[in-house]
Amino acid sequence: xxxxxxxxxxxxxxxxxxxxxxxxKRYLLNKIEGLLFQNKSIIIFGPRQVGKTxxxxxxxxxxxxxxxxxxxxxxDVRKGLTEKTSIELKQLIGDNKIxxxxxxxxxxxxxxxxxxxxxxxRDVQLIATGSSAFELANKINEPLTGRKFEFLLLPFSIxxxxxxxxxxxxxxxxxxxxxxxxxxxxxxxxxxxxxxxxNLVDSYLFxxxxxxxxxxxxxxxxxxxxxxxxxxxxxxxxxxxxxxLQVDRLTIKRYIELLEKTFIIFRLPSLSRNVRNEIRKNKxxxxxxxxxxxxxxSNFTNFDLRTDKGMLWENFLVSERIKYLNYNLFYxxxxxxxxxxxxxxxxVEEYDGNMFAYEFKLxxxxxxxxxxxxxxxxxxxxxxxxxxDNYLEFLTE
Length: 397
Description:
The chain is of the alpha/beta class. It has two domains: 150 residues, 3-Layer(aba) Sandwich (Rossmann fold), CATH 3.40.50.300; 239 residues, Arc Repressor Mutant, subunit A, CATH 1.10.10. It contains 19 helices and eleven strands. The strands form three sheets. It has a five-stranded parallel β-sheet, sandwiched between helices. Strand 8 and strand 9 form a beta hairpin. Helix 12 crosses helix 16. 36% of the residues are buried. The N terminus is likely disordered.
């Protein structure tokens, strides 16, 4: 394999990426840079098309060290990394100081290959990306125990876009963001949002899911995703989904876990500690991106005309809050709260012994009343209503 040619191609591709992306700074860039050359690998998870390769480009350009880039979507690259000895890997790496392995989950036994590089080639920084946490994590967790730093890269965050274009511009575009989301191509190519999102869903998201050998009912995945998209911000009943799709409960549970591992959806657990009738086991479903959710149900209707405005608002706020915490490396427990009598709090965080509760309202003049049962059960908890007036404080602090 002509790796020098691939490195040259990588350098040329930088010019294209920088044209569109270099001005929008990714918060993880500095976080990752601060952890380089500590004899640990850097693992970057995230869905396709969120800018993992772009992040590698930016990092390589900033460090100005000789870099070997390997794209594991290429069959010959996968072959060149499969079941190699440390001597073969040293020959492959040569005098490069950074090795970037893109879509590493596609390589058989990649964990052992990465371990050999870390243990046997000490002066090289290894960085690997993967669009499937399920595949890559299963292959690297045991071999790389104590040998890795992990990061999750998602679509642009509001905090990143404000740093790029300013508060006024982002406030002006808020209803657009609620419909089309924040995938990099969507943000950078105004006027093509529908095409980009439909292509993203059809060509990338489903492709990664269906690549699993034991997915025997791909049509069920599509129907399940549509059902979940119609129930965002709601507690999901496995039994109801099983009956609706006429599939057994274990298959539904497994497919939902798969959708989480491919970074399409995430679940929020219920907070249950002090009240007898608190909901204990249920979880609410959210999509990482509003645009992907709307593409799945083929609905890009103007925000002001929609009947699901409240759901879009809540999904946007929770998913953006997840990005904010993730990109700033803030580690907090996250919940929703509800009782069997339908008393509910949209979102709760806990960290450093403190608890914070939030209600999400579209009506800017309406202040939420937090249930007395909740306030009595969790004395000292701080509460706040999030509206169009103050949402940027919640997403940028």
